[in-house]
Amino acid sequence: MSEKQQSGLLLLGVGGGGCRLAASVLASYGNGLCALGVDTDALSNRSAAAGGMTCLLLGGSRLAGHGTGGDAIQGRLAAQDDMQNLLPHLQGVRTVVLTACLGAGTGGGATPEIVKALHDMGIATVCFVTRPFTFEGEARRRAAERVLPMIEENADSLVVVALDDLFSDAGEGVLADAIQAAEGLVSAGITLLWRMVSKPGFIRLDAERLHTMVLKGGNARFGFASAEGPGRAAQVFAALRACRLLRSGDALSKANALLLGILAGQDLRLAEVGEIMGQVRDVCKSDCHVEMGTVLDAQFDGRIELVALAFESWTAAAQVEPRKEVSQTQQEPPVAEAFPIQPGSKRGRGKGSKLSFGATGRGKFQNVEPTLFGGQDLDVPTFIRRGITLER
Amino acid sequence: MAIPPIAALEIGTSRTVMCVGESDESGRVRITGVGTYPTIGVRKGQITDLSQARVGVEAAAKQAGKQADVSIWQVLLATSGGHIQAMVNPGMVTIRSGDRAVSREDIEEVTENAQTVQLEADRQVLHTITQSFTVDDQPGIVKPEGMRCKVLALNVMAVHGLQNRIENAVSVAKSAQLEVTDVAFSGICAALAVLTPEQRRNGVVLVDLGGGTTNYIAYCNNVISAVGCVAVGGDHVTNDIALAFNIPLNRAEEIKRTEGSAVIDPEIGGRRVTLPADVGFEERLISCKTLHTVINARMDETFRVLRSKLDEAGVLPHLGGGVILTGGGAYLRKVTDLAQRVFGLPCRVGLPVNVDGLESVEQPAALSTAAGLALYGRLTYEDRGLFSPLKNLFKGVFHR
Fold first, then answer.
1. In chain B, how many domains are there?
2. Between the N and C ends of chain B, which has fewer C-beta atoms within 10 Å?
């Protein structure tokens, strides 16, 4: 049985940056990880495939494998063109961990389309997306900002990693290495998370828990830290609190749910776990829902690594929207669990904002019988319904 | 047999067209008079203001009559709109003769059987189109006469529309003192004018990009396999542009024609065009890339809707002849490139090659429907026998 079938987890890299992140996680994790890369650039696809990752070319007929040239609209159309090709790879998948670097064509254009398709198929998604460095320019930053709400609308959990946060001093280091180093850090964090859920230890934090947390937790911040030597338990949690990705502990103290993984060697002591969890209790809110798991692996002997997903919300069980299953063989959720979507939930808000366009956007077709297709009013301009932001 | 001149009227969403066609002994139709006038009072192919629509009909009839030197008092009318639908109706007979050979009477009986279409009371059949016979379990038979079998079946495609909507268009012609002798679906007319026999044999889809509607008709193995209309057209592109840039519709139409493209030109860069000032309208700079983005989104969606409908009808794998675009929208820059990408099939613009007399007309594809309607009139005027393959396609005979 493959890992995908076993865990229902798939790592999906979208675009050049997303594929590099996924390939990097695959290289760190080793065999057994089920990863897929999708990109419009055939060259980038080939290099990712060389690392053992399955790769799909998007928009081959439209772009001939030359990439989007930074045009997010082309990325979006390419994803629409070839969405069918993605479906066979999603058989048996329940949770997708998606990686993408925003600001460019495929990552910015294709990601919202793919996330929407995953949502429509009932697959839970946790999206790790990077926001570009400030030095990459205002245009890329704006492009990334435009795309984020579209991803958020359909993603179950969105983790935005601002690359600027990864370095305390942007002036340090060689410019050419900065992006690579940042991506290395992000992929290291995702690798830890993957290891956490794929190789559960004595205290289980498996794919099912991640699936549930993703569905109930909403958007999240993500951080990780490592420490070794005497006093490592205290040090590693202090390092986690200092992690800029977690807003220097602010995200931990404000989180409504926390998924915390402790990765250590066989020498991990009970007292160390107790010390870490004690500090979690001290820092987090009293009603914060905490899920903790451990992985004991000989390669971590002498050190402790922590990986944390701090969720901004926590939905009680009775308020969670049930997800339809992709595989017919998987057990359907009982009818009693079919509760309506929470009125103020992220997805509900998203749909509401879309409808507001329809009320005012019909122009000359204002008082004409609407042309309806696939649940959409075709008299409303396509660019509005597709959420295309126009540069004026 | 001499056939009098045929007047064909199309009350389109953006313009009204009248064509006068005259046929020679060979059966070719030559357009001897064309009249066009901007339409007001029509939205998405349907009449919204009878009196305003009449103005265009009168003007187009006057112009075409003068050019052809005829007095027009009877017309054929092309109709379109989102209400037009098609359904396949099966018919079946048991062969009763002792030798089990299909006779001419059996064919007539099964045809009559299949043409008896049950529709809601408010719908009217425009055409019944013979598809193919099934002889026992053997489908795809074109001429079953003489073949031996137990059961003969026939599928007939019925094209129908809402009676009131069709009659509204007829009323407009009547108010212009024109008698309507027959009504035909615009998509079928355009196909008659544009498609060659070879294209029909190879399998082809004709997409008529009109102002308010997009009609389609697909042939597989020389048989009409899918017919329909999507109430989205060039007007929607114009409306999208007007809303995107907050400019009047006439300005949006103008910039669509002069600078529009269905594909975002990668070399357009930051080019902007000026919309000059007019009364109550300040000069504006329009980004070409944004303009192309708006048009691309709409046209891409329209083609995807069509692809979805053709896919649903199961005809997509049988379109070896590709996609033929006709109608005024076919002149949008790079529209064939976009259609080729969306359908994954070769695509080109189709001109009304099956009629003569339009060689010197600017943008003849915009006249495909009216020219094809004149040809339809010629074909349905003939006695049975001379044009029997086509004769069977259509309900009723055009009388003058």
1. 2
2. N
Asked if residue A250 has pLDDT above 90, the reply is no
Closest partner residue to A62 (CB to CB) among B242, B287, B341 is: B341
A378, A384, A386, A391: best to mutate for the B interface, most B CBs within 10 A: A378
Q: How far apart are CA A101 and CA B97, in angstroms?
A: 75
Same domain, B96 and B142: yes
- Terminal Cα distance for chain B, rounded: 14
Last residue of a domain, one of B311, B327, B351: B351
Tell me: do B124 and B266 sit in the same domain. no
What CATH number corresponds to the domain at position B109? 3.30.1490.110
Instruction: Determine whether the interchain pair B264/A364 forms a contact, defined as Cβ–Cβ distance below 8 Å.
Output: no
The domain locations on chain A are 3-198, 217-313
Whether B293 sits inside 8 A of A61 (CB atoms) is no
Residues B157 and B206 in one domain: no
- Shared domain check, B277 and B149: no
With contact defined as beta carbons under 8 Å apart, do B256 and B296 qualify? no
Domain pair A3-198 / A217-313, same fold: no
Looking at this predicted complex, what is its ipTM?
0.89
Eight-class DSSP state of B92: E
Query: B-chain residues within 8 Å CB-CB of A378?
Result: 230-232, 236, 301, 305
Note the CATH number of domain A217-313: 3.30.1330.20
Residue B35 burial (CB count, 10 A): 26
For residue B295, the surrounding DSSP H or E stretch is helix B288-312
Q: Does A373 touch chain B (CB under 8 A)?
A: yes
Picking from B83, B243, B337 by the largest number of A CB atoms within 10 A of its own CB, the best residue to mutate is B243
Q: Is residue B181 part of a domain?
A: no
CA distance B17 to chain A (A): 23
Taking one residue from A and the other from B, the number of pairs with CB-CB distance under 8 angstroms is 86
pLDDT tens-digit series, residues B345-395: 999 999 999 999 998 888 999 999 999 999 999 888 764 333 333 334 433
Query: A365 and B43: CB-CB below 8 Å?
Result: yes
The CA distance from B368 to B16, in Å, is 13
pLDDT (tens digit per residue) in B285-306: 889 999 999 999 999 999 999 9
Establish if B45 belongs to a structural domain. no
B309: domain CATH number is 3.30.420.40
Give contacts of B243 with chain A, Cβ < 8 Å. 361, 363, 381, 384
Looking at B117, B136, B162, which one is the last position of a domain? B162
- Residues B345 and B204 both lie in one domain: yes
In CATH terms, the fold of domain A3-198 is Rossmann fold (3.40.50)
Determine the distance in angstroms separating the CA of B214 from the nearest CA of chain A, rounded to an integer.
Answer: 12
> Residue B293 and residue A383: Cβ atoms within 8 Å?
yes
Distance of CA A32 to the CA centre of its chain: 20
B327: left (phi over 0), alpha (psi -120 to 50) or beta: left
Q: Decide if B300 and A77 are in contact by the 8 Å CB cutoff.
A: yes
Report yes or no: A292 and A205 within 8 Å, Cβ to Cβ.
yes
* pTM for this model (two decimals): 0.59
For B150-202, how does the pLDDT look when each residue is reduced to its tens digit (9 = 90+)?
Answer: 999 998 999 999 999 999 999 999 999 999 999 999 999 999 999 999 999 99
Please state which of the ranges A173-187, B42-56, B85-99, B108-122 shows the lowest mean pLDDT.
A173-187
- A293 neighbors A202 (Cβ within 8 angstroms): no
CB contact under 8 A, B264 and A74: yes
Residues of A in contact with B236 (CB under 8 A): 365, 378-379, 381
Both B200 and B279 in a single domain? yes
CA distance A288 to A310: 10
CA of B258 vs chain A CAs: smallest distance (Å): 19
pLDDT class of B280 with cuts at 50, 70, 90? low
The two tokens of residue A260 are: 């915390």
Range of the domain at B121: 86-162
For the residues of B121-141, what is the DSSP string, one character each? TTEEEEEEEEEEEEETTEEEE
